[in-house]
Amino acid sequence: AAVSVQTPLLNTCMDAKHHKRQPGPEGKLHAQCSPWKDSACCTANTSSEAHKDQSNLYNFNWNHCGVMPPKCKRHFIQDTCLYECSPNLGPWINQVDSSWRRERILHVPLCKEDCEEWWEDCRDALTCKENWHKGWNWATGTNHCPWGFMCRPFSKVFPRPKDLCEKIWSNSYRYSGQRRGSGLCIQMWFDPARGNPNVAVAKYYA
């Protein structure tokens, strides 16, 4: 009985805008999304859109305060790949009543290094908002800073790595303090040649 209760939390895709119904192999996943090719919740098309400055996925513009530096942007691409492609987020999927998705992730324990490297590589990039999920000016069809919001360095908007990871997507992530390889935190970055470490993490939390 325990097994049948746990199974839905493992190897599963959330009910959201671009996710497949079931995870499966995707041979042509693009660039930074390719680690998930053996078992993915995203299609090849979604994976290539995840790499564009102005992607069709959500019409979201990374460059809302000038051009985002490439070393920063790669973390946002990786974050998008994890969100769209990972079949290992089941323990943190929550129901949500939203026009564009029925489920979201909440408090995914992100590994310490993933948070800290993201913050370090983005500290000098500019943004005008702490929470990127809501509150933008969408008058032109893409996100612009709301009136009266100043562009400031990430390090001022997010004083610590924890602030960036937890606040930017409304607590989708939690800064876990656990290290990569501990089996206790989800990795945005991993080497697929050594297997997907998040499979064991999902199993642990399930």
UniProtKB/TrEMBL annotation:
List the molecular function annotations (GO) for this entry. signaling receptor activity
Which UniProt keywords are given for this protein, alphabetically ordered?
A: Disulfide bond, Signal
Reading the lineage from the top rank, the first entry is: Eukaryota
The chain positions of domain Folate receptor-like read: 12-187
Q: Does the keyword Signal apply?
A: yes
Listed under GO cellular component are: external side of plasma membrane
Q: Which family does it belong to?
A: Belongs to the folate receptor family.
* Name of the protein in its database record: FOLR1 protein
Name the lineage.
Eukaryota, Metazoa, Chordata, Craniata, Vertebrata
